[in-house]
Amino acid sequence: MSLSLWFDGRLVPQDQLAAPLTTHAMHYGTAVFEGIRSYATPDGAAVFRLREHLERMRRGADALGIAFDANEAAAATVAVLRANHHRDAYVRPLLWYGTGSLGLDVGPLSRHLMVASVPWAPHLGEKPVRLTVSPMRRNRAAALPPLKLAGSYVNSILAKREAAGRGFDDALFVDDDGLVVECTGVNVFMVKDGAVVAVAHPDALPGITRDTLVELTGATARAVPLDELKEADEVFLAGTSAEVLPVAALDERRFGDAPVATEIRARYLSIVRSGSPAHEHWLTRVPGA
Ligand code: PMP
To answer: An example of a Gene Ontology BP annotation on this entry (predicted)?
Structure first.
């Protein structure tokens, strides 16, 4: 049976949908998306921090100049999960410029919203990750705001390809001053002498997992030079699909066991997978999914 998608206000079987080849977003990346997790909890499906994801999407929509109704997208998310009977799933809303012109003036273009859900498969796997410092630079915030604008992901994809070509799992972006930015689809944390530090950088995506972990651990958010990261006791990555993932190595530097990251990962997973009275406000329950 075909999966259902939400497209422009209604649920439609996926195999009945197609986008024209003159879709503006396909030519110029003029779209904004989100990556959201739904978890199978003992009380059914629950979407983690749906409001915060859709608020970030609204900022991307504002940057592109596309009207976006976060309440409609939230209702669509719930409807799609329920229609597909997805509990452990990845939810992908996308808002994009359609047809009407192939010029760079977006005024005449059609605008569309879809929400898809796909059964869950982990993003970087479950094993500790081997990183390499990318020879590429991250998009500068002054050139492309760090939001989930589709076109900005070409930067991530090129860096990831380059790292994979040298046998690594992911690329670490560092700026011209040697400060750590983020990886291609996750934010970076380190642990030194028991203190947890969330790497802060203006060119990094303001991650919702990062925000969650800062709140859970009381981590300090600050700029971190690459040299300091290499001296850390532990380095770990945070993102909606990667969740919390220890880093095994950064180029020639190998990290040992990651007891703090492992403990933080367990706390994170227990909250997303079942909630806790203190964190129930982070979950949107989807009865009937
Ligand atoms: N940085 C980038 C570039 C990303 O694509 C993601 C994934 N959305 C993250 C960081 C982590 O953000 P979040 O925790 O909100 O998924």
So the answer is: carboxylic acid biosynthetic process
Q: Of all atoms in ligand 1, which is nearest to the CA of residue 52?
A: 15
CB-based contact 234:260 (threshold 8 Å): yes
What is the ipTM metric for this complex?
0.99
**Each residue's pLDDT tens digit, 136-160:** 999 999 999 999 999 999 999 999 9
Percentage of the residues of the chain whose pLDDT score is greater than 90: 93
In DSSP terms, which residues pair with 47 in a beta bridge? 38, 284
Amino acid at 194: G
Alpha carbon distances (Å) from 14 to 7, 33, 84: 9, 18, 11
144 Ramachandran zone, left/alpha/beta (phi>0; psi -120 to 50): beta
Distance 56 CA to ligand 1 centre (A): 11
Pocket test for ligand 1, best of 47, 138, 205, 282 (most atoms within 8 A of CB): 205
Q: How far is the CA of 257 from the centre of ligand 1 (A)?
A: 25
Which protein residues touch ligand 1 with a CB less than 6 Å away?
A: 35, 156, 182, 185-187, 205, 207-210, 238-240
Q: What is the pLDDT of residue 276?
A: 86
